[in-house]
Predict the 3D structure of the following.
Amino acid sequence: MRADSFALPLLTAGVFGAMPSDAAAFPWMIHHGYTNCAQCHVDPSGAGILTDYGRAQGEILLRTRYADGEGDAERLSAFLFGAVDLPKALELQPEVRTLLIPEPGNMRLLVMQADMRAAIQKGKLTASGALGGVSEGAQEAWITSNDAGWNLVAREYWADYQPSRSWQLRAGRMNLPFGIRTEDHILAVRSATQTTINDEQQVGVSGVYQTRKVRAELMGIAGNFQVSPDAFRKRGYAGYVSWSQSKTLEFGASSLLTQSQLDTETLAARTFLAEGLFLRAAPVPPLAFMAEADFLRDQSDTDAKNGVVGTGIVDVEPIQGLHVQGIGEYCDTDLGASEAAAWSGGGALQWFFAPRVDLRVDGGQGVLSCTQGASPAPFGLLQAHFYL
Amino acid sequence: MNRSLSRLPIAFALIGALLSPAANAGFDVASGVKVSFSATGSPGFLDIEGKSATMTVADDGSKLTFTVPMTTVKTGIENRDEHMNDKYVQIAQFPNAVLTVDKAAITWPSELGDKSKGKVTADFNIHGQSQPVEVEWTAQKSKTGYRVTGSFNFDTARSGITIPDYLGVTVDPKIMARVTADLTDAR
Amino acid sequence: MQLIFLLGSAWASSAYPDQVLTDVGGDCTPPCTICHATNAGGDGTVTMPLGEALMTRDLVGGSNRASVTDALTELTDDAVDSDGDGILDVDELATGSDPNPGGIDFCAVLLPTYGCLSTVGGPAGGLGAVAGLLALALRRRRRDPPG
C-alpha cells in the first residue's frame, strides 16, 4: 500500500473532523476497576446515554489531561458544558457522527448518527430513548423508509423498573445482551452474532440481575417492529452472565437463539444460535485484554451450518486518553466449507484528546463483517466522535 | 561525686524499663503490610477498594494498636481519593484509622509454622470516632515473629462519616477492612 | 487488490437495487444478494460473481447511482453471463432472475421493508421529521421540583 494513500484521508479527516464511531461502550474500562457498567450508563449492560457520573468519568478517567487542576470535572462534563441546567431527573445527550470516506473517485460524506438521546429517572422508574437521523445505512433502525437519502432512526426506546438494588425489569427496543458490549460494531464477534449496537436492537422484555461480583441480563425477543412484514421479525432470547473474580478480571458466558419465518439477510427461514464465552482482564494498570469466542449454528429449511468466531483485543493506554490496540479475529461461519474461514488482524489508535471528543484510526487486513467467501483485503478507517 | 550516686539515673532507668509495660519492646511491623478498605457503590455495585502498604503497630504490653495513615490509602482514582480524604474522612483533622486489640485475646502460637485463628472484639477509630468491631484474625508463627491477618466490617455512619454521594453514585456505609502484616516479636 | 476504506453493514447502498431496476427494466426490485453475501449488503461483502463483475467495471459503494448505470452499461457491452446459462446478466435481471450461479427468481422472493412510516421524500423531509419530533419533546418537557 502506498504511504501517501492515507495522507489525503488523514488530512481530510482532520479538516472535516468528526466522525462516526458508535455509541460509547468501552470494555477496557476494566483497567480502572469498572467491571460493571451501570455507574456510567443508564443501560445497566452498557453503551447508550451516560449518567452524570459517567460523564464525569469521561473527564476524569477517559480523556488526556494536560495540566493539574485542569477545570472542574463536573462542570466540564455537564450537558452543553453547563450552559443549560437540566432537571436532576433528566439526562440529554446529543450525538453527531459523520463519516468521510476518502475513497479515490468515490469520496462521500455520511451522517451515521445524529441522535438526541434522553433518559428520565424518577425513583424506581427510568425511561430512555434515542431519536435521530442518518443519511445512509442503519436500515434495521429506520422509522422512515427513504432508500435514496436521509432517514429518521430510533435505535433504542425502553422503560425500566428497579424494584431492588439487584433487580431491574426492562421493556422496549434494546441492545441485545450478549458478549462484550463494544462500540466497535464491525468486530467479527458482534457482526457474526448479529448483536451490534448499531442497528441490531430488538423489542423485548429483559430482566437484569447485579451483585458486586455477578451481572446478568436475559431478554425475551419479540422482534424488530421497524421491519415489515411480520415474517421478518425474529423471536427468541439473548442473555449473558458474568462473574468478576476481582476488580480487574471478569469471565462471562452468552447465549442467543432467534427464529424467523424469513430473515432480512438470507431471505429464507432462519434459526440462529450463538453461544460463547468472554473475558475481560486488566493484569497491569495500562493494559487491558478482551476476548470473546462464540459457537454459531445457522439453520434454514434446507441447510444447517456450524461456525465459530473469535476476537481478541489488547488495549494499552500509555498515557491517559491514548489507546493503542491490537486486534486479532478468526471467523468461520461454515465449518463444513473450506473457504469459509478467515483471519483478520489490525490495529487501532484511539485518542480522547479533549472533552467529549475522540479520534480513532484503524488499519489492518481481513474479511469484514465475517462475510463468508470474501477475500481478505487491507482496510483503513478514520473516525471521530463527539457528543454534548 | 560518689560513683554509686552517679549510677542512680541509669539504675532507675533500667528498673523503670523492667517494671513498666514496654512501649514498643513487643511487636513491631516488619514487612508485608497490606491494608484494604472495600466499599460498594450504587448503582451498579461499584467495587471500590482503597489500599495501603503503610501501617505501624504500637505494643504497650496489653494492647496492640494498629495505625494506618489515611493519606496512604489509594483507590486508584485520584479524584476519588481527594473527595474521600477532604470531604468525607476529613484527614486534615482525623489523619489515621486506628484498630486497638487486646493482646491477651489472641492466641500466639509458639511453634514455627503453627497457625491459630479466632475472633476478637476490638476498637476501631476512624474520623475521630470509635466503634466496636469483630475482627476475624489469624496468626502464624514465623522465624522473626508472626504473620497476622485480620478482617472486620465497620459502619462509616457510626463514625460520623457522611455517606459519599457523587453525581448520583453513593457508597454503602458498610465497609470491610482487611489487614495483613508480618510482625516482629521482640519480647 | 481492493482497498476498503469503510467497514460494516451500516453503510449499505440501499439505493442501488432501485437503480438496477430503473436501468435494466423489469417488474421487481432485486435483493442485495445479487451482489452481496447477504441482503444486509455492506462494504467488503460483495462475493457474488455479478457484484464482482460490476466492481471490476468501477461500481463503487454508497449512493453513487451513476456508477451503477455505467457498470451495467459496460456489463451489457461486454456480454457478461455470470452463471453461463447463455442468458446475459442484464437480461436475466430484467426478467426478475438472479444471474448468479444457482440464482433464484427474485420476483417470487418477499423482501423486507424497513421503517414504520412511508417515505417522506428525501433529506429535507427526514430532517423535518427529526426537528418536529424534537420540538414536540422539548415543549412537553416537565420540570422536577428543585433539590
Remarks:
- The radius of gyration of chain B is 20 Å.
